[in-house]
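Changelog-adjacent note: as of this version, every example in the card shows the full chain rather than a window. The one below runs 210 residues end to end.
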Amino acid sequence: KLLADSGIRHVRDGFSDRIIELGKCGITTTVIADLEGNSNGGKGTVRKIVERIKAINASGRYIDALEGPNEPDNFWPKHKKVYMGYGYMHGWRGFIMGAIEFQKDLYRAVKSDPSTAGLCVIGVALCPVYDPLGLSPNPLAEHELAPYADWGNLHSYPGNNPYNVPFPYAGLDRYYWQSNFPSINLDEYPWALEVYAPPYAPKPMAATET
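Full-length structure tokens:
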């Protein structure tokens, strides 16, 4: 009720019993699609994810978007081992190839099913700051996921978020911390878009966390 009264009309979450309840109040959901047992509630395989969306949307369009694996460079293993308490792998591959293939399989599964084909599929968002001063390039290649997402994705945090390491840029001493993300400074100081948008170009970008 508080969400509805506030005027908020869209939320982002894992699968939840509240999605239908919120939908009946006019609030739709972006679901984070990830492997079984993750920190966003555990969604399972790509097919299970699609079937669960279909079940929730059977009585209304309560889920209108889904997002690829959440920050797989933070939560997926770089090798075949458990990482930070999680052991996410897709096709026995962790980050980066497993996450890329998961996004591709997710997009194909959603778009090939008539009951989910109209949903917006948002791409993978990475966690740490990449390419500060050219030292750490984005691990996703240019245009790599453009055919497998309707929107690209980035997580840009102002303030002292531990994953967003500040660095000098465009007259700012501590870029990423001296800013008003997600939108106000992205045009004036477009570093984040220049780094995170190319894998999805020419698709538009979403900021699903900030």
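Structural remarks: The two ends are 24 Å apart (CA to CA).
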